[in-house]
Amino acid sequence: MRPRKKKHGDERREACQDIIITDKTQIKSKPVIIEIGCGKGRFITELAARHPDKYFIALEKVPDIIVLAAEKIKNENIPNVNFICDDVKNLLNYFGENEVESIYLNFSDPWPKAGHHKRRLTYKSFLDIYRYILTANGKIYLKTDNRPLFDFSIEQLSENGFTMDNITYDLHNSEYNSDNIMTEYETNFSAKGFAINRLEARLFPAID
To answer: What pTM value is reported for the model?
Structure first.
């Protein structure tokens, strides 16, 4: 479903321009932690608040959605988050080799239709980008309620230079739930009884 156009959207985006990056020279420091597909910003807001010593960038390609996340960060007065309004395929316009500490993929579009698997954010072409920009011991954190996407992601990660651990098919009833930050989507769908799948992946071999 196409998001409804926000009232006064242009003015609201203009008010947030100081935290929306349009060029890689505006990135404050590296390595950086990024969330791909931040939605309305609940997750990145809480994550950045918990880790004020870290620097975060949230990517969202829909202008009328990213403004909601940016407004949340400004309203909470959280200084360690910037945003990029762009498509994930353009990540290399902003990040070079070994410049990203970790990547969060929360409830990415599962692209379930036949022939659409190459659009999934854990398809090989995207993993090639992540592998290039991640630091030597960099991590990918993945959450999804879509089991076919989760199984696909495990397969793609294992075939493309990543090793996985801390895998669960029911996050909210697992040992990993104590530190979990719920997204807006996660809150809604877990309330309806959907199990949440979660894993961590790192470049192989891992560096201690």
So the answer is: 0.93
